Amino acid sequence: MPKFIIERTVPGAGQWSDEEVQTVSAKSNEVLADMPGVQWQESYVVDDKLYCVYVAPDAERVVEHARRGGFPADKVSEVRRIIDPTSGGR
């Protein structure tokens, strides 16, 4: 199944309280419960952006999740390859 990175502009996200994180996460999970085949894996939070990793059949389903949840989805990119330190060989 394809994997996607979603870039979301959310001013102040890096300063969210634990309660705010819980609220946003719960909303995402609520939407996902009605979207079989779409899985949220994790998100990286920086000052004013979130970078979320999803597995889904296609980018349209990821955008639909954002729409239903009221989340921004500024850019959705399909992951073409994953590399890590072991990719260098030896």
Key terms for this structure?
90 residues; alpha+beta; Alpha-Beta Plaits; four-stranded antiparallel sheet; 2 helices; 29% helix; SCO4226-like; SCO4226; DUF4242 domain-containing protein; plasmid
What does this structure look like?
The structure is a single chain. The chain has 90 residues and is α+β, with helices and mostly antiparallel strands. It has a single domain, classed as ORF SCO4226, nickel-binding ferredoxin-like monomer (Alpha-Beta Plaits). The chain has 2 helices and 4 strands, in the order E-H-E-E-H-E. A 4-stranded antiparallel sheet has the order 2-3-1-4, covered by helices on one side. The protein is globular, with a radius of gyration of 14 Å. The termini are far apart.
